[in-house]
Amino acid sequence: MADNLRKHGHKLVVCDPVAANVDKQVQQGATAAANAREVAEQCDTIITMLPSTNAVESVYLGKDGVHEALRSEHLLLDSSTIDPIFTKKLSAELHERGATFVDAPVSGGVAGAQNGTLTFMVGGEPEEFERVKPLLSAMGKNLVYCGKSCKLKELSWARKSWG
Fold first, then answer.
1. What mean pLDDT is predicted for residues 76-81?
2. What mean pLDDT, rounded, does the chain reach?
3. 28 domain-assigned
4. How crowded is residue 131: how many other Cβ atoms within 10 Å of its Cβ?
5. Other C-beta atoms lying within 10 Å of the C-beta of residue 71
6. pLDDT tens digits, residue range 142-154?
7. Does residue 86 carry a pLDDT above 70?
8. In the β-sheet with 45-48, what is the strand arrangement from edge to edge?
9. Quick check: 103 and 123 in contact, CB under 8 A?
10. Which residues belong to any copy of the 6-phosphogluconate dehydrogenase NADP-binding domain (predicted)?
């Protein structure tokens, strides 16, 4: 996903607990950040793709999280397949603090991410969907707008939970 964003001219600030992932992106011209707060200090747009609800909560609301540097101009885009109830709470909290939060889980696997052919199921206000289209189009081919509350996230979460 990061490679495709860069190919479309986006400058990246990256943070990942796996140092090799950060090193690869830095070698391609990205800037490394020590934590999510540093990313939020340097960027107006933040895209997350994390493995669990706990990881998303930590990145956005934990120590050195996005919330510590949150600004009203922030566009926060989460593509993690996580608990939809938590996503709704996180969205409400971040919107209340003035930021834009868009939920955009993906389908397409590693090959789709590498080839820029992911399908994004996007939840948010119509104007938020329009705002994220250029970013999502750099990483995927199919953008499905699901309305304010993304019901497809609930289906995706259920599928992940069932194995």
1. 95
2. 92
3. no
4. 16
5. 11
6. 999 988 765 555 5
7. yes
8. 45-48, 75-78, 100-103
9. yes
10. 1-147
* Type and span of the H or E element at 30: none
> Does residue 39 belong to any structural domain of this protein?
no
Torsions phi, psi for 8 (to 5 deg):
-95, 15
Partners of residue 100 on adjacent β-strands:
75
SS3 call for 13:
strand
Residues making up the chain, counted from first to last: 163
Residue 102 burial (10 A CB sphere; 0-12, 13-18, 19+): buried
Range of the domain at 115: 45-162
Q: Which two tokens stand for residue 27?
A: 């070698």
Tokens of 95: 């919107």
- Using alpha carbons, list the distances in angstroms from residue 139 to 15, 54, 78, 113, 163: 18, 25, 13, 7, 25
Confirm whether 8 is domain-assigned.
no
Percent of the chain with pLDDT over 70: 91
Q: H or E segment at 116? A: none
Is 65 part of any domain?
yes
Per-residue CA distances from 130 to 68, 123, 143 (Å): 27, 11, 11
pLDDT interval class at 162 (50, 70, 90) = low
Domain total of the chain = 1
The token duo for 91 is 């969205």
Structure tokens at 117: 């052919």
